[in-house]
Amino acid sequence: MTRTAFFSKIINMKFVLATHNQYKKLEFEDLAKTLGVLILDNPVQDEPLETGKTFVENALIKARHTSGFVDTWVMAEDSGLCVPTLGGKPGIYSARFAGSNAQSKDNIIKLQELLQTNDLGEKVYAYYYAIIVLLQHPNDPQPIIEEGIMQGYVTTISQQKFDGFGYDPIFIPSGEKQQLSQLPKEYKQKHSHRKLAFQRVVDKFKMLKN
Length: 210
Prior knowledge:
With 210 residues, this protein is α/β, with parallel strands linked by helices. Strand 1, helix 2 and strand 2 form a beta-alpha-beta unit. The longest helix is centred in the last third of the chain and has 17 residues. It is globular.
């Protein structure tokens, strides 16, 4: 069966999300509701080692790992915060910037200390980057791959509160005065790097389906 023929038989978009990160899972479930997608739980308990050198390599590693255990489309995402003046750090190491068992607070503190040491001012240009891949099976030769970017700044002012996911407590989207963690939930659903990438994946999926 050709890819086009396979798509023509699909009534609903159902993707297994290759993650056990509850924050990401909840965020994607919220986004999926606005895009007409049903997110299915990942039945695979173990996590593959993210040995890639790029976001897309790591996303493919995760997607292919889960896809080997299920019979439906698998979606995986890799994302991070990039600060160009630091050579793109923390980048693909965003979730473990302060160590393999680091919490968001630890990563934020390390990043701010690095920025303060370099005396880069109170706000430094940065952007959130996300890559999403969608594949039909582990050896799918044509995975759907799309990216999303949310530009803004990170504040170097030390924080008292660390509410929010990832670097949201110190990330200020372009055109806004508040950190992402302080903005309404609807703002992130509409403008986040994950939303942009997810929207593009769904659009590409629909295009191939038709």
